[in-house]
């Protein structure tokens, strides 16, 4: 991160609620999951947060905007896919496979939402009207985690326990790319500005990239014990990521130059990160807050 980076914190929940993932909604607000508090939060920058409670023991994890103007999220504990409108109306969709542990979710180029089933070795697809289809992966115990749409029309996902990156096509055809580093533990993944997919390796302390044809690069972080968790593209052409154990926010150029910045509160446990509607980066801090990260480069790029 540049030396002029500024980090501000906004309390949105108590520590017991656990803000976990965050995304920018179509309504100009930030939406975030409360993984331990079993709720969804909404924040318009500069205003007070709003909380929408779910039923007990839902475990909402990743949240993303859908093609229908609503927000879609996974319920890891309840094994469901949830949908919330911008005015707070919630629908929940049980999955065909019980105890599947849905975690990552992303909008696909086909107008559907694609999601991972960590405990079932499957990738799922749900249409806005709730039709679900599941695809079995060729790996057992791979723990598919985050998922994102690639520039090549496929959906790319991390296989946390298999130390690999996977790609699934529209009809369920799967390709698996093992990583050069054993037991790397990839988690977050996002599409980069260079046409590659960028991911973080929580167990290896590295950031990686993979091109659509499968060429992989890995970049060690200055602190290999930082446990990077989530990653997103910024407005400045850099990839931004959270360091869960390092209590930092980091950025990396497509050439592999890394910069990091400490968060002001020790032990804040940064998890999800997204580009906000105001051009800043926003991260969910599990101790009960959101962090807003700005730098001269990111603000200039947004303008």
From TrEMBL:
SUPFAM superfamilies according to UniProt: NHL repeat
Cofactor dependence: Mg(2+)
UniProt: Mg(2+) binding residues: 269, 286
Any single biological process term in GO: antibiotic catabolic process
Positions with a binding annotation for substrate: 229
Keyword hit for Cytoplasm: no
EC numbers: 4.2.99.-
Keyword Lyase in record: yes
UniProt superkingdom: Bacteria
Alphabetized UniProt keyword annotations: Antibiotic resistance, Lyase, Magnesium, Metal-binding
Active-site residues, as the UniProt record annotates them: 271
A Pfam family per the record: Vgb_lyase
Molecular function GO terms recorded: carbon-oxygen lyase activity; magnesium ion binding
Entry similarity comment: Belongs to the Vgb family.
Quaternary organization: Monomer.
Protein name as annotated: Virginiamycin B lyase
Organism whose genome encodes this protein: Saccharopolyspora hordei
